[in-house]
Amino acid sequence: MSKRDYYEVLGISRDVNDADLKKAFRRLAMKHHPDRNADNEEAVEKFKEAREAYDILSDPQKRAAYDQYGHAGVDPSMGGRPGAAGFNGDFGDIFGDVFGDIFGGGRGGGRSRAFRGSDLRYNLDLSLEDAVFGTEVNIRVPSLQSCATCGGSGAKDDTSVQTCTTCGGVGQVRMQQGFFSVQQTCPNCHGQGKTITDPCPDCHGQGRVQKHKTLSAKIPAGVDNGDRIRLSGEGEAGENGGPAGDLYVQIQVKPHAIFTREDSDLLCEMPISIATAALGGELEVPTLKGRLKLKIPAETQSGSSFRMRGKGIKPVRGGPVGDLLCRVFVETPVKLGSKQKELLREFEKSLEADSKSHSPKSDSWVDRVKRFIDDVKS
């Protein structure tokens, strides 16, 4: 079966320039690439045909021979240059030569590649007060920084840097695996394209050294557990001139002696005496900004909560200020003297005459217990 004209295969004219030639092949390669057309033999054949046409027409010498002699000028079996045409199954070359400008690859792309430095995390313990009102702290962070002695090159001097003999400075090597040719990072220079014969004495050829640095971090008001503050460019130094990573300050609020935080609200528990709970009274309530008076109404039950609006926290991401919720519990007196015990017994007897009025919950509970026992017996 005779071969189709290469210009016809790519759908281009004979005076096509290099840029349009590459575009034409790219379009067909993306359409018929085997990775996109599994089990489609026709697509594979069209891909091979387009690849062969591009191999010839993208080479000035091969293209001149093809323009003058046709297929005979480039086909080894017809007297042309050996190895000038034919698909060799090297799909890696396609993306290296044609798609390198899209994906940032291509031949030689591994030479002295720059890498962004790693991000770091610093766990910062804050008091509740500092988290609520904001603060500024100094933190000491260990990180890899560019070596000042060699400027990050890793070499003692310029003469210590040589082109890698394994990959020829490309940074990558090709391994033939049957039908496919696989491109891998050079095992000798690790993709750098160069080797160091005399490393820097301070960083031992790494280009970076471990150091501690002290940073000032502003903590905004209203932060909470789990919030993160990003310090741009304060992470580890990049490799080969790459940008530094970021430092993330992770907030952890320490437990408070009085308050518990729930979103933008503050909660606290306060003990009150039996007399205050029964007769009512006034308590001094602590807040993060001072003390306030709280009126306790008569006949307050243990577990009752009182809301003090606007005495909570203003969220760091905006929104209304939260509230302070005071939960009171009645404290049973301990270590009573004989006279105090006697007074309590007299007080209890005085309540028994009209228990429904003085202890409605207790009386109702006793009635429910009696009904439950009667139901079980029946």
Description of the molecule:
The chain has 378 residues and is α+β, with helices and mostly antiparallel strands. 28% of the residues lie in helices and 25% in strands. The chain contains 11 helices and 15 strands. The protein has helices at residues 6-10, 18-32, 41-57, 60-69, 91-97, 100-103, 128-133, 274-279, 338-352, 355-358, 360-377, and strands at residues 120-126, 135-146, 161-163, 172-177, 180-185, 194-196, 208-219, 228-231, 247-253, 260-262, 265-272, 281-287, 290-296, 305-308, 324-330. A 4-stranded mixed β-sheet has the order 10-11-15-14. Helix 2 packs antiparallel against helix 3. The N and C termini lie far apart (102 Å).
Task: Please give the CATH architecture of the largest domain.
Answer: Ribbon
The strand count comes to 15
**Helix-strand makeup class:** alpha+beta
Rounded to the nearest angstrom, the radius of gyration is 41 Å
Query: CATH class of the largest domain, anyone?
Result: Mainly Beta
How would you classify the quaternary structure?
single chain
Principal-axes geometry comes out as: elongated
Q: How are helices and strands ordered from N to C?
A: HHHHHHEHEEEEEEEEEEHEEEEHHH
> Would you give the CATH topology of the largest domain?
Chaperone, DNAj Protein, Chain A
Let me know the average pLDDT: 80
Q: How many angstroms separate the termini?
A: 102 Å
Total number of helical segments? 11
Outline the biggest β-sheet: 4 strands, mixed
Q: How many structural domains?
A: 4
Strand order of the largest sheet: 10-11-15-14
CATH superfamily of the largest domain: Heat shock protein DnaJ, cysteine-rich domain
Q: Fraction of residues in helices?
A: 25-40%
